[in-house]
Amino acid sequence: MTDISPHAIVERTAKLAEDVRVGHFSYIGPHVQLGPGCVIDNSVTITGRTTLGAKNHVFPMAVIGAAEESPDGPGRCTIGQANAIREHVTIYAGADKPTQVGSDNLIMIGCQIGPGAVVGDHGIFANCTYVGPAARVEDYVRSSGFAIIQAKVTVGAYTFTAGYADIDRDAPPYAIVQGCPFRVRGVNTENLKRCGFGEDDIRALKDAFRELFDPANDKPSAKALRKLHARAKNTHVLRLVEFIRSGPAPAEGDDG
Description:
By secondary structure, the protein is α/β, with parallel strands linked by helices. The chain has 4 helices and 28 strands. The model has no long low-confidence stretch (mean pLDDT 93).
């Protein structure tokens, strides 16, 4: 059965699985749904039309599902399974489209996820990372502290954003990005190894990065992309090329 502190407020129309735990002084709003195995620590606020899947752990002082304009606004927020949402995290609800967080993410102290943002699976977001409204963060992304992902930009899968990096445009997958504004510094080799990438895949990505991201200019030319796409056989390299080509049109560049 549910374990709800007598000092918590759970609205009557909220839907909680039988084994949910809710700590002291937490508030669960009337349109909230909490899946099996969720642990809501003390002093947490979950409001809006918010759904949490199974086995999420929400730590003290986190706020999930509040609208930026009004805590009781009509926004929606969907959280997957087995996320650790640490202290003082704020996940805003989306009005036009729901804010979405996938599964198996670690969202550390003080992070903010803006309304309408989409966060994938298996991410690790260090303290005070900011994900702007309608931004998109793909799977297996890592961030260091105080990284800023601006509104409506995309961070590709397996990428690492260094501390205080300002992601003001789409960041390619598999990369280490650093700076304000950011620059591509290389392939996120250690993360790829931990995620099971083999040496051949990593070598192919390193070769592709050397070809695409000149130290003086990390915006690949359209011609360089076409050349690499024409001969690339590695699926990850092809994914990298397609990601870049799907963004703003690259410069034509020279034939090199």
